[in-house]
Write a structure and sequence with these properties.
heterotrimer; A mainly alpha (325); B alpha/beta (339); C mainly alpha (312); A: 325 residues; mainly alpha; 12 helices; 0% strand; B: 339 residues; alpha/beta; eight-stranded mixed beta sheet; four-stranded antiparallel beta sheet; 12 strands; globular
Chain lengths: 325, 339, 312
C-alpha cells in the first residue's frame, strides 16, 4: 500500500485560477465592495454626473442667475443671450435658472418615490417571507394584483384622488413600485431562511427573531439597494412624465417635464435649445442612474463580478507580456 | 516519442487516430499555462482505450480537442491525425462533416446534454439527416432501429418522448444511439456513467463494449474511475496534470502499476470487503494549471518523492508496450489491484 | 385545453377582485368628497346631501362596492361628470385608437428587438454587442414624450413628412393610418425595443452556453441550425414572458404619448379625466387597462404550456 504518512512537501489546497484573481473571494470587506467605483470607468462617470445634478439641485438658489418664476412679458421666446443663457420661455422666465431649479424637483421627487416604495415594500416583504402561511399568501396576492396595473395608469388614478401635486404624484409612483420591492424582500427572506434553517435547528435551538433579523437584513439589503437605484431611474422618468402632463409639479414650479410641456405647446416658436436641454438633462441623468445601478449590481453579484475581474486580469497580463516581448 | 507499434492482446490494430504532441494552453492572469502538455497516443481500429485521471488532468480537454470542440479560449498545438489528415488544421466545415459521422462523442450528464424541448427521436434523426440525404421517415426508422439496439424497450413509443420523460439510464442509452447512428469509427465517451446509478452504470458500460465489438467501433473512454476502465477497455492511459504518466495494457497496469499515481488510483477504487473508511485516497489535489511544477507534476503528492524528481520527467519505456513517466519505475514495488 | 383555460381564469379572479376594489376605492381615498367634486366648491350643504343620497354614498363601503361591481358587470360604467356621455361610450370610441397604437408599438418592438437580441447574443462582448447594449441603455433612459417632441419637430415641422397630431384608424385607409401611427408607435416602442433586446440577448446567451449546444455541435449540426432551431426554441419561454411585460410597458407608454400627439385614445381620456377628477371615466379606463393586461397574461400563460414540454 502506498505509504501516506510520508507525504513530504506541501499538499497545498490551491484555489483555482478564477478565485485567485484579485479581490475575487466572496464576502469581501466593506472597502473592497466599493472597489468598483474606482475600477469601473462607467461607474465613475455616472457617479460624477449624478453628483453634479445633486449639487446643482442643492445650490440652485445660490447659483441661478435669475428668479425662476419671475415673469417678463416683454421678453418672451428669446434665444440664448448673455443675460439669459438659454433664453426665456413663453412668459419671459429665464430658462437656465428654471433648468437649475428643475433639478431640485426631479431629485427630490425620485428619492421620495423610492422612499415610499421601500417604506411600504420592505415591511410587507419581510412579513410575507418571515411569517409565511396565510399571511404570505394574501400579501403576495395583493402584490401581484397591484403589479397587474400599468404603473402610470394606477399612479394617475391615485393622483386624481389626492389632487395633482409633486408630492402626491411621487407618493403614487412609490406605491406602484412597492410591490416589486416587497417581492424582492420576500425572496431574500426566504433564501436566508432556508440557509439558516439547518444551522438554526442545530445551533440556535429556537431561532430568535433578532438573530434572523441580524442575518437576513444585511444580506437582503444589497439587492434592495441595487433595486432602489434602478427604481430611482424609473421614478425620475415618471416624475418628468407626470409633470409633463400636468399631474406632477404644478406651475409655476420649474420642473424639467413641465418645461418640456410648455416648449411642446409653443413648439414652432420656442428656441430649439429649450426643446432639447431639459430632455437631454433627463436622459443623461436617468442613464447615469441606470449605469450606477448596473455597476452596483455587478459588483455585488459574485459571479458576474469575478468573471469580469478575471477577464480584465487576463487582458492586463497579455498586454504586459506583449510589451515585454 | 510515439506509442505506435504497440499491440493489444491478440488484435492487430492499424491506428485510426494518432495524437502527436498535443498541447492545449490557456491565457491566465499569470501568463500562458498548459492544461495538456505534449500528449502522444494512438487508437487502433476497434480498440477500446481508457483515459483515466482526476478532474484537472486534462482528459476531458483532450477528448473535446479530438472533435474540435475545445473552448474558444484554448490554444492548441500539435497534431491529431485521422486518416492521414490533421484534424487541427481542418476548416470548420470539414470538421463538421467528421463530427457525429466518423468521430462521435457522448457526455456525462445526459439530462443537460440532450435538448429538453425536442423529442429524443427527433434528436437522433437530426444527426442522421445532418450527414445523409434521407427522407424524414427513413431517418425516423433508422432512429427507432438504433433505439432498439441500445436496449430501449418500446422504441417506437420512446421516439416521441422528451428527455425528461426518460430515466437516467435510458437517456444515456439514447445519447449512445445518437452517437452511433451514423456508424462512426471512433466514439469518445466523456464520463458516460459518472452521473448514473451504480446498477445502471454496469449496464451502460456493457452496452458500450458490446456495440463496440459488434460494429468495430473504437472507443476512447474518459473517466476518473479506474474500475470502469478495468471493465471495458483493453488499454489504459493515465493522465495527471496535463501529462500522460502511464500507458499500458489494462491487465498489466492494474496488476503491476509502474507509476505511483496509478497505484494510488487503484487503492481508491471501492471494492467488496473493504470498508469505505479504509479506502485510501491520494492526499492533496491537482494544482491549477498555472501552478504545475516544472519537474514531476505528481511529486508534491507522491510518497516516493526524491530530489531528482524535481527535474522534468520524460516518458520512458518500461517493458513491451508500456510507458511510464517516472524515473523510479523499476525501483518501486507498487501495489496493484487485488483481483 | 378548455380545462387549462378554465384553471388559469380561476387563478385570475382574486387578482381581478382586488384590482376592482382598488379601482373602486380610488375615489374614496382622497380628501375630496365625491359629491363635492361633482358639484363644485360652492354647493350648499343640502345639495351635497342630496347628491350623496343619489350616488348611494351613505351606504357602507362594501355595499357600494358590490353595487358598483354589479353595474360594471352589466356594462354600465356610469356617466362622465364633465361630459354628458356614458363612460362606456367614451371608452368605446377611445379603445380602438389605443389598441392600434399598442399593437403597432408591440410589433415594432418585437420585429426590431428579437433579431437585435439574437445578433448581440452571437457575438457577446464584441464591439457590436457593446453598441447594442449601450443603445438599449439609452433607449430605456430617454423620456418618450421628449423623443416624441424631437421627432415631431423633425418629421412634421421641419421636413413635413408626417402629421404632427391627430390619429386615423385603419378604417380610414391603410395609408393614412400608417402615416398617423408610425411616429407615435415608434416613440412608444423605444423602451420596448430595449427591453426585448436585453431579454432576448440574455436568454440566447444562456441557451447557447447550454450543454445541449455542445452535443449538437458534436453531432455535426451546422451552426445555423443550432442557433435558429435549437437555441431559439430553448429561449422561447423567456421571449414569450417578455412579450407579456412588453404589452404592460407599451400600454403605459401610450398614456403620455397620446397626450403629445393628441391621439384620442384612452390615455388621452384618462389624463383629462384626472385633471378634472372625473372619477367614473378614470375608473372605467383603469379597469379597461387592467382587463387588457390580465387577458394578455392569460394568453401568455397558455402559450407557455404549449411551447415547453416540461411544463405540464
Amino acid at each position: 500500500m502506498a505509504d501516506e504518512t510520508v507525504v513530504t512537501v506541501d499538499t497545498v489546497d490551491t484555489p483555482d485560477v478564477a478565485s485567485a484573481a484579485p479581490a475575487g473571494r466572496p464576502g469581501r470587506s466593506r472597502a473592497e465592495k466599493f472597489d468598483f467605483l474606482w475600477a469601473d470607468t462607467r461607474a465613475k462617470v455616472a457617479l460624477s454626473w449624478i453628483l453634479l445634478v445633486v449639487v446643482v439641485a442643492i445650490l440652485a438658489p445660490l447659483i441661478a442667475p435669475h428668479d425662476p418664476i419671475e415673469q417678463d412679458l416683454t421678453n418672451v421666446f428669446q434665444g440664448p443671450s448673455g443675460s439669459h443663457l438659454l433664453g426665456t420661455d413663453d412668459i419671459g422666465r429665464d430658462f437656465f435658472s428654471r433648468l437649475l431649479y428643475g433639478a431640485r424637483v426631479s431629485m427630490f421627487g425620485s428619492f421620495l418615490a423610492v422612499f415610499v416604495a421601500m417604506l411600504i415594500g420592505i415591511p410587507v416583504g419581510l412579513a410575507a417571507g418571515y411569517l409565511g402561511g396565510i399571511v404570505e399568501n394574501v400579501l403576495m396576492r395583493i402584490v401581484d394584483s397591484v403589479l397587474g396595473f400599468p404603473a402610470i395608469v394606477l399612479a394617475i388614478g391615485i393622483i386624481a384622488a389626492l389632487g395633482p401635486s409633486l408630492t402626491n404624484a411621487m407618493v403614487a409612483i412609490g406605491v406602484t413600485f412597492s410591490p416589486s420591492v416587497a417581492r424582492l424582500m420576500r425572496g431574500q427572506v426566504l433564501a436566508t431562511k432556508n440557509h439558516l434553517y439547518v444551522d438554526a435547528a442545530e445551533q440556535f435551538g429556537s431561532s430568535s427573531l433578532r438573530t434572523i433579523r441580524r442575518h437576513i437584513l444585511p444580506n437582503a439589503i444589497q439587492p434592495i439597494i441595487v433595486q432602489g437605484a434602478l427604481l430611482l431611474a424609473v421614478a425620475f422618468l415618471a416624475e418628468a412624465a407626470l409633470s409633463f402632463i400636468g399631474l406632477g409639479a404644478q406651475p409655476p414650479t420649474a420642473s424639467w417635464g413641465g418645461m418640456l410641456s410648455r416648449s411642446a405647446q409653443y413648439l414652432q416658436v420656442s428656441p430649439s435649445v429649450q426643446v432639447y436641454s431639459p430632455g437631454v438633462a433627463i436622459t443623461l441623468t436617468v442613464l447615469a442612474i441606470n449605469a450606477l445601478g448596473d455597476s452596483l449590481r455587478d459588483s455585488l453579484d459574485p459571479v458576474a463580478g469575478t468573471e469580469r475581474r478575471v477577464r480584465r486580469a487576463i487582458v492586463r497580463a497579455e498586454r504586459a507580456r506583449r510589451q515585454r516581448a | 516519442m510515439t506509442s505506435s507499434g504497440m499491440t493489444t492482446s491478440g488484435k492487430t490494430t492499424s491506428p485510426i487516430l494518432e495524437v502527436k504532441d498535443l498541447t492545449i494552453s490557456f491565457s491566465t492572469p499569470y501568463g500562458i499555462a498548459d492544461a495538456v502538455s505534449g500528449s502522444n497516443f494512438t487508437i487502433g481500429a476497434g480498440e477500446r482505450v481508457g483515459m483515466v485521471g482526476e478532474s484537472g488532468s486534462g482528459k476531458s480537454l483532450t477528448g473535446l480537442a479530438l472533435l474540435g470542440l475545445s473552448p474558444k479560449a484554448a490554444r492548441i498545438a500539435g497534431e491529431i491525425l485521422w486518416d492521414g489528415r490533421n484534424l487541427l488544421a481542418l476548416p470548420e466545415r470539414e470538421m463538421r462533416s467528421i463530427r457525429g459521422r466518423h468521430i462521435s462523442m457522448i457526455f456525462q450528464e445526459p439530462m443537460t446534454a440532450l435538448d429538453p424541448v425536442f423529442t429524443v427521436g427527433q434528436q437522433i434523426s437530426a444527426t442522421f439527416r445532418a450527414h445523409h440525404k434521407v427522407s424524414r421517415s427513413e431517418a425516423k426508422d433508422r432512429a427507432i432501429d438504433l433505439l432498439a439496439e441500445v436496449g430501449i424497450p418500446e422504441p417506437r413509443r420512446r421516439y416521441s418522448e422528451y428527455p425528461h420523460q426518460l430515466s437516467g439510464g435510458m437517456r444515456q442509452r439514447a445519447m449512445i444511439a445518437m452517437a452511433l447512428v451514423c456508424e462512426p469509427r471512433l466514439l469518445v465517451a466523456d464520463e458516460p456513467t459518472t452521473a448514473l446509478d451504480v446498477t445502471i452504470q454496469a449496464q451502460v458500460l456493457d452496452l458500450i463494449a458490446k456495440l463496440s465489438e459488434e460494429r468495430g467501433t473504437a472507443v476512447l473512454l474518459i473517466t476518473h474511475d479506474l474500475g470502469v476502465v478495468a471493465e471495458t477497455c483493453e488499454r489504459v492511459l493515465t493522465m495527471y496534470a496535463g501529462q500522460l504518466v502511464e500507458h499500458a495494457q489494462v491487465d498489466d497496469a492494474l496488476e503491476f502499476p509502474r507509476h505511483p499515481y496509478t497505484s494510488g488510483l487503484l487503492a481508491a477504487i471501492p471494492r467488496a470487503g473493504v470498508a469505505a473508511e479504509d479506502l485510501e485516497s491520494i492526499p492533496g489535489r491537482v494544482p491549477p494549471i498555472h501552478e504545475f511544477p516544472t519537474g514531476c507534476r505528481f511529486a508534491p503528492r507522491c510518497p516516493y518523492r526524491e530530489p531528482a524528481c524535481d527535474r522534468p520527467q520524460p516518458l520512458v519505456e518500461a517493458g513491451a508496450g508500456r510507458w511510464v513517466r517516472c524515473w523510479r519505475h523499476d525501483q518501486l514495488e507498487l501495489a496493484g489491484a487485488v483481483r | 385545453m378548455l380545462r387549462l383555460i378554465g384553471t388559469r381564469l380561476a387563478a385570475v379572479i382574486p387578482t381581478l377582485l382586488f384590482a376592482t376594489f382598488t379601482i373602486f376605492g380610488l375615489q374614496h381615498i382622497g380628501p375630496a368628497d365625491p359629491a363635492t367634486v361633482i358639484l363644485g366648491e360652492n354647493a350648499t350643504e343640502e345639495r351635497i346631501a342630496e347628491v350623496r343620497e343619489q350616488l348611494g354614498l351613505n351606504d357602507p363601503l362594501v355595499v357600494q362596492y358590490v353595487k358598483w361591481v354589479g353595474k360594471v358587470a352589466r356594462g354600465d360604467l356610469g356617466g362622465s361628470i364633465i361630459r354628458t356621455e356614458q363612460v362606456s361610450t367614451i371608452i368605446g370610441r377611445a379603445l380602438p385608437n389605443t389598441v392600434q397604437l399598442v399593437l403597432a408599438g408591440v410589433v415594432i418592438s418585437v420585429v426590431i428587438g428579437i433579431p437585435l437580441g439574437i445578433f448581440a447574443a452571437t457575438r457577446p462582448n464584441s464591439g457590436a454587442d457593446i453598441a447594442v447594449t449601450s443603445g438599449s441603455a439609452v433607449g430605456v433612459s430617454v423620456p418618450n414624450f421628449w423623443l416624441a417632441l424631437v421627432l415631431v419637430t423633425l418629421f412634421a415641422i421641419n421636413w413635413r413628412l408626417l402629421p404632427a397630431r391627430g390619429f386615423e384608424t385603419i378604417g380610414s385607409g391603410l395609408g393614412t393610418a400608417f402615416k398617423h401611427t408610425i411616429l407615435p408607435a415608434f416613440v412608444v416602442s423605444t423602451s420596448g425595443i430595449a427591453i426585448v433586446t436585453r431579454q432576448v440577448r440574455g436568454a440566447m446567451i444562456e441557451a447557447l452556453s447550454a450543454d445541449s449546444v455542445r452535443t449538437h455541435r458534436a453531432k455535426g449540426l451546422p451552426w445555423r441550425t443550432i442557433l435558429w432551431k435549437h437555441a431559439l426554441r430553448n429561449s422561447a419561454v423567456t421571449i414569450i414572458t417578455v412579450i407579456g411585460l412588453l404589452v404592460n410597458t407599451t400600454l403605459g407608454a401610450t398614456v403620455v404619448v397620446e397626450a403629445v400627439f393628441a391621439i384620442p385614445g384612452m390615455g388621452f381620456r384618462v389624463i383629462n379625466a384626472a385633471t378634472a377628477r372625473d372619477f367614473p371615466v378614470i375608473q372605467g379606463v383603469v379597469l379597461t387597462y387592467v382587463l387588457i393586461v390580465l387577458a394578455v397574461n392569460l394568453l401568455i400563460d397558455i402559450a407557455y404550456r404549449i411551447i415547453d414540454p416540461r411544463i405540464s
